[in-house]
Design brief:
The complex is a heterotrimer.
Chain A (H helix, E strand, L loop, with lengths): L7 E2 L4 H4 L11 E4 L5 E3 L4 E4 L3 E5 L6 E7 L4 E4 L3 E5 L5
Antiparallel strand pairs in A: 1-4, 2-3, 2-8, 4-5, 5-6, 6-7
Chain B lengths: L7 E12 L2 E7 L11 E7 L5 E7 L9 E7 L7 H7 L5 E8 L13 E6 L3 H13 L6 E7 L8 H9 L4 E7 L10 E2 L4 H7 L8 E7 H13 L7 E6 L7
Parallel strand pairs in B: 7-8, 7-11, 8-9, 9-10, 11-12
Antiparallel strand pairs in B: 1-2, 1-6, 2-5, 3-4, 3-6
Chain C lengths: L25 E2 L20 E6 L2 E7 H6 L3 E8 L4 E12 H7 L9 E6 L4 E5 L9 E6 L2 E2 L9 E3 L12 E7 L29
Parallel strand pairs in C: 1-5, 2-11
Antiparallel strand pairs in C: 2-3, 4-5, 5-8, 6-7, 6-11, 8-9, 8-10
The chains are: A mainly beta, B alpha/beta, C mainly beta.
């Protein structure tokens, strides 16, 4: 059996999330829907496989963002996110 | 549709073995819109039966508009993408690629403040892009790299790093070896802990921009040490790689 | 779509195993780990398994009570939606049939089930897919207690469906009339997930 899985950074999801946003959303500030922790999306914890990813709060581990690509569609769930904030410059 | 999203067809122009199990692959990418140091690309491989694998790799080549880009790829045993890239890919082959991606783990020569880089193994790739970019811009921004490798023969870009260090333009290189240390070695030994970070890095009061790239356990450990010695969390940018689980 | 010259991915099933694995699968001797999140580590003293029927608690077992129930061994092939299959895996645990009996039900309820796990994962089933010795709450793998990384202390084992249905760190089964999509199903994974029909995504037949 292999050892435990380790998460990557939200930064690595920038390409997939680029299918939904016209700017680099990994630079936006995201507010956790569970604990209200705020930080760059790029610093969320990234779990997942090729077609399915989960981005979790780095403070409380709650699911903030989920995404699944089926080949026919790309599906994004933001129900774990309270708010996404971009600076005016973005 | 976002321009980030467009898959481009990249043609292999050169293959260079860096160390055993590590190659730098050069691509010509028509339609490439240029990148900033530290960004990455997604690559997509499609088998004849429709099976698709997608992975992210950091750009190692310097920032700029040049459509000739480089990725440095390390073999992951039991992987299905890196063995293909290292063993099967030939000059003239084409693969799909999208990018540049990610504005978070990036550095530009105009940035005020020192540049502090900490690399584990092939995590050197995006940091090498930063150092190449800095050198090409003739930047005198103070820069330091702490680079952890398993042994001397695992050091990637060794000659080029030595030359950059030898230029005496404000860049200082420190190697550390974690497994095999040869007689007469003058660099650091063992895993990077608080002492080399303090002695060979910049002090928190110098307000460096800190970039850490390597396998997840390496980055986690370094980030903890950096915060413990007083670096602001917001000054530390991390890029982790490693097995994330391939299945469910 | 651009075919990548020379790229095959992992080797597909060979002649010896082709009839035994669903279409498109390759056989591996590894046991890859999935992850929608960090490994959960619930101590046996704090662990319980609950069954709910229409929102009301039907039964709850602590670890010792679960171990006192009839133990079943299952030797089976498992199939992951990411296309690996693993043959002849050996498990031990308590079948859903035995758990329903222990909960005092003479026959199983009709309808659907949602599995709820530590870490917030969930997955849905038709009850018919869990009964008649087709599924269990597994606590042992290859004669050893199930490690946390593979879903220990206890995970669902529903080997005739894709392995995302064999939810790790199981804590609660909620029986209900409606089929509500779980963690991945609500994003587009198939509601049932039969590997022999390649039911990967919503819209696959």
């Amino acid at each position: 059996m292999i050892e435990d899985i380790v998460p990557l950074d939200g930064n690595a999801a920038a390409g997939r999330l680029g299918q939904f946003f016209t700017f680099d959303v990994t630079l936006a500030t995201i507010t956790c829907g569970h604990c209200a922790f705020e930080g760059p999306l790029a610093e969320l914890r990234l779990y997942g496989r090729d077609a399915a990813i989960v981005l979790r709060c780095r403070h409380c581990d709650a699911v903030n963002i989920r995404m699944l690509e089926t080949g026919r569609s790309a599906n994004l769930d933001l129900s774990g996110t309270a708010r996404i904030t971009t600076s005016a410059a973005s | 549709m976002n321009s980030l999203l467009r898959w481009l067809l990249a043609t292999v122009s050169q293959l260079h073995e860096e160390t055993a199990g590590v190659k730098t692959i050069s691509f010509d990418v028509p339609g490439w819109r240029g990148h900033v140091a530290g960004q990455h690309v997604d690559i997509r491989l499609t088998a004849e039966d429709g099976y698709v694998a997608q992975r992210s790799y950091s750009l190692a080549s310097p920032a700029g508009p040049d459509p000739r880009i480089q990725l440095t790829v390390e073999r992951v045993d039991d992987g299905e993408v890196s063995p293909f890239l290292l063993d099967e890919l030939r000059v003239g082959d084409s693969i799909e690629l999208r990018g540049p991606i990610g504005g978070y783990f990036t550095w530009s020569p105009g940035t005020a403040g020192p540049l502090m880089l900490i690399a584990g193994g092939s995590g050197i790739a995006p940091l090498m892009s930063m150092l190449r970019t800095r050198a090409l811009a003739s930047s005198r921004a103070p820069a330091r790299l702490l680079y952890s490798s398993r042994s001397e023969r695992h050091i990637i870009y060794r000659g080029e790093l030595d030359r950059l260090h030898g230029a005496r333009d404000g860049f200082i290189l420190t190697h550390t070896l974690t497994r095999e240390v040869p007689d007469g070695w003058t660099g650091e030994r063992g895993r990077i802990g608080r002492t080399p970070l303090t002695q060979r890095g910049f002090a928190p009061r110098e307000r460096p921009h800190v970039f850490v790239c390597g396998p997840t356990p390496f980055v986690d450990a370094i980030a903890d040490h950096l915060v413990a010695i007083g670096h602001e969390e917001s000054s530390i940018r991390t890029e982790r790689f490693g097995p994330t689980g391939e299945s469910k | 779509m651009h075919i990548t010259r020379g790229f095959k991915g992992k080797a597909r099933a060979d002649a010896a195993t082709r009839d035994r694995v669903p279409p498109g699968q390759f056989v591996t001797s590894d046991f890859p780990i999935l992850t929608a999140g960090p490994t959960q580590r619930t101590g046996l003293d704090d662990w319980t398994l609950s069954f709910q029927l229409d929102g009301k608690l039907l039964a709850r077992w602590d670890w010792k009570e679960l171990e006192a129930l009839p133990q079943t061994e299952m030797k089976t092939d498992i199939h992951c939606v990411t296309k690996w299959s693993k043959l002849d895996t050996r498990w031990r645990g308590v079948t859903i049939d035995d758990l329903l009996r222990a909960a005092g039900l003479a026959e199983s309820p009709a309808g659907f089930v949602m599995a709820h796990c530590d870490g917030g994962y969930s997955t849905n089933y038709a009850i018919a897919d869990l009964i008649d010795s087709r599924a269990m709450v597994a606590t042992h793998y290859e004669d050893s207690p199930l490690p946390a990384s593979h879903g220990g202390p206890a995970r669902m084992l529903v080997p005739h469906l894709y392995f995302w249905k064999s939810a790790k760190w199981i804590r609660r089964l909620a029986f209900k009339e409606q089929n509500v999509p779980g963690f991945w199903e609500s994003l587009g994974d198939h509601l049932r997930g039969d590997p022999w029909r390649e039911q990967r995504y919503s819209g696959d037949e």
